[in-house]
Amino acid sequence: MLQEIESPPLTANHEDSHLPQRILRPGDTCWRIARADRFAVIVDAADYFAHAKEAMLKAKHSILLVGWDFDLRIRLTPDDDGEDGRIRLGDFLKELVNRKPGLRIYILKWDMAVFFTMRWEIVPMILHDIVGTRRIHLRFDSTHPLMAAHHQKIVVIDDALAFCGGIDMTEHRWDTREHIPNDRHRIDPAGENYGPWHDSTTAVDGEAARALGELARMRWQFATGQNLPVPDRTLDVWPEALQPQLHDVDVGIARTFPAYGRRDAVSEIEKLYVAAIRAARDTIYIENQFLASKRIVEALCARLQEDDGPEVLFITPQSAESWLEEEVMDSARALCLQRLLRADRHGRFGIYYPVNAAEQSIYVHSKVMVVDDRLLRVGSSNVNNRSMGFDSECDLAVEGTPEEPRTQSTVLNLRNNFLAEHLDVSQAAVAQAILEHGSLLRAVEALRKNEGRSLRPLPLREVSEAEELIVETRLADPERPAQPERRIEHMAKRAVLRHPITAAVLLGGAALTGALVASRLFRR
C-alpha cells in the first residue's frame, strides 16, 4: 500500500540523508505551522455556506471576512425554511449585530472586484456603516500593484474558528456535491440559472484559527491603517454538523504577497508547490481552475521524465468561464499541456474534466493538491503565474509522517473522496481500484464512464501563433510586479522581427487582455 513506502529525501544536502525532509518548513514553504484541535475539509459551497452561517450565529466578539469578492445578496442556505434561511447575506449580517450588542463585523474585499462587479447592495452597506450601528465595517483593499488582485478567501469568527480555501461568498458558487442538473437552487441574485460548480475550503480551530485571525487583521491594517482588537476570550463556535477529519494536527499556513510599499514579497505557496512535487513518491493529485504556472509545470515535467517518477492526475474545467478567459488562459493551458505530454515518456500523466448526470461540464474552481499519503493542501492559489508572486493568496496544508499514520491515512482518504465525487462511485470503490490496478491513473480509467456523471479526458487543442504570442507576453498572467512592462518590451521586439505587419495589433490586443485580467473575468 502507498502508506508502506518510505518517502525519499527532498534534497541530498539534508542533515540526515536517510530521513525525508519535511515539506512544510516555516519561513520557507509556509509562514508558520500552527496546531488545530480540529481540521476539516469542506467540499462545495452548499455545505460551506451552511457551516459558516451556523458558526456566525454563535459569534460573540468579531467576524472577519476577507475575500476576493462578497455578494451580500446571496442566500447562504436556500434549502432552509427557518427564520434565517432565506434572507440575504447582507440582511443576515445586519440581523446578527442587532441581536448581539458586542459583535463587530469587518468585511474586506478587493477594490477592483467592486469596480467590475458593481452591485446595488454596496451603497446601502456603505450607508449602514456610516449612519447605522457602526458595527459593520466594509472596506475595499487597494494595497496591491497595478493589475494585481487580493485573492485570499478567509473567514475568522472570534479567533475560535477559521475557514480558509477557494470559496468566495459570492454569486454562482452555491452547489451540492451531487451537482444536480438544473438544480432549482442554483439561481443567482438576478434570478438567472447558472451551471454546476465544484469548490473546496477548510475549517480549523485552536492555534491555527488564531493565526488566521492574525493574518486577517494584518490585511485589514495594511489596507486601512487601523488595528483591529483581538478577542480577549474565545468560545467554541465549531458547527455541530461539521465532522473533523483530523484532531490535534499541525497545519501549515502558506501565503503569496507581491512586494508593495512597506511590504516585502512573499512566495511561500510557490515554494510549497515545488517542494511537494519534488518530494512525491507515487502520486500527485491536483484539482485546479488553471494550468499555467511556468515553475509548477517545469517541476512536473522533471518528475515525469524520470524513469521511476510519480503519476500525475490533474482535474480541471473543460474550458474557462468567459470567452476572453478561454482565449487566453485556455491557450496557456494548451501550451503547458504540450510540454507535459512531451515530458511524459512513461505514460504517467492524465488530465480530466468532470461532468454531471446530464453530461454538463462541472466548473472546477477548487484548489487542491494531494501528494501520496504525505501532504494535503487546500487554498486559494491557482496553478498559474499570478498566484505564485503577483496576487495575494493563502493555502492551508497538513503533512503526514510515519510518526503520524492517522494523518497519512486521512490524506489518502480525502484524495479518494474527491475522486469518488468526480467518478460518481464510492470512496471504497476508488481505494479498491487503486489497490487492484497498482496505479491511480489506471484506477481512474477502470472506474470512469463514457456516459453520465464521471470524468472525461481533456483533449489537447492546437494553439495558433497569435495566441501563443499573447500568452507569452504574460500580461494576462504575470509572475511578479513590473513584469508586464518587461514582457511587453521583450515581446514587442520579437513580434516586430517575426510579424512586422501584425505586431502592433497583437501587442495592442495583449495589452487590452492584460488590463481586463485584473477584472473579475480572470480572478474567480
CATH topology annotation of the largest domain: Endonuclease, Chain A
The radius of gyration is: 22 Å
The name of the CATH superfamily of the largest domain reads Endonuclease Chain A
Count the beta strands.
18
Number of domains: 3
Largest sheet: 16 strands, mixed
CATH class placement of the largest domain: Alpha Beta
Report the uncertain regions: 1-17, 127-131, 483-493, 515-523
Strand percentage, roughly? 15-25%
Q: Bin the helical content.
A: 25-40%
Total helical elements: 15
Computed structural class: alpha+beta
> How far is the N terminus from the C terminus?
38 Å
Shape: globular
- Arithmetic mean of pLDDT: 85
CATH architecture of the largest domain: 2-Layer Sandwich
